[in-house]
Structure formats: C-alpha cells, structure tokens
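Problem 12. The chain below contains 114 residues. Write out its predicted structure in token notation.
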Amino acid sequence: MVGALATKPYVLRLNITLRYTSALVIHRPTRRCAASASSQEKEFKQTLAGSAENVRAVDIARKVGNLLGSRLAVKGVDRVHLDLVKEASKQARDCRRFQALIGGIQEKGIEIIP
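Solution.
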C-alpha cells in the first residue's frame, strides 16, 4: 500500500440528520465497513421507549460514539481518520452532536486523526 491507504486505512463517516445520528468506519483498502453504530438500532429504540429521552439529544450522540468505539476496540482498531473538510457541513449544522459523537469515540480509547 502506498500513500493515504497505508497511513490512514480506517476512515470515519458521520451521518447527522435532524432526527437521527449514525456513524461508520470504512476500511479503505478493502472498501468494507469495519464497524457502525446508529441511533436507529434496536438497542437504542428499546432503551428510549421507556424513557422521555429524545433521539435527537446530545446524550444519544455520545452513546452512539461509545458504542462505535467499543465495536472498534473489539476489532483491534485504535485510530481512525476523520476528514474535517468533508464533515464540515455536518459540524456546522449541529456542532454539539458532532462533538458529542467524537467525544464518545475518544472515551473508548480510539484516536481521531485529522
């Protein structure tokens, strides 16, 4: 491997909409999903059914980040690349959820490389 594929093989992609938050990590050389997490998963829906929490809340974004971080740790991934130029529109639209998601991933020991 040469260039960015060798130095940054795992890329973090975020999808922050008005209703949901999801994130996935793609392994560039194989073009496959290494791990993903979303606020639409069954675990989150069951948790939220009994509580008054909103799926748009910042706490949910942090939980999605924690879940993704733990799934990456199980796979042995310790660092991921985040292209801030591509993700700038998502960060500008909802900065608090963006930061909470990144913080949740970092809490599990995953390093974010710009």
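Discussion. The beta strands are 10-16, 21-27, 32-38, 79-81, 111-113. Students who got a different answer should revisit the alignment rule from Section 12.3.
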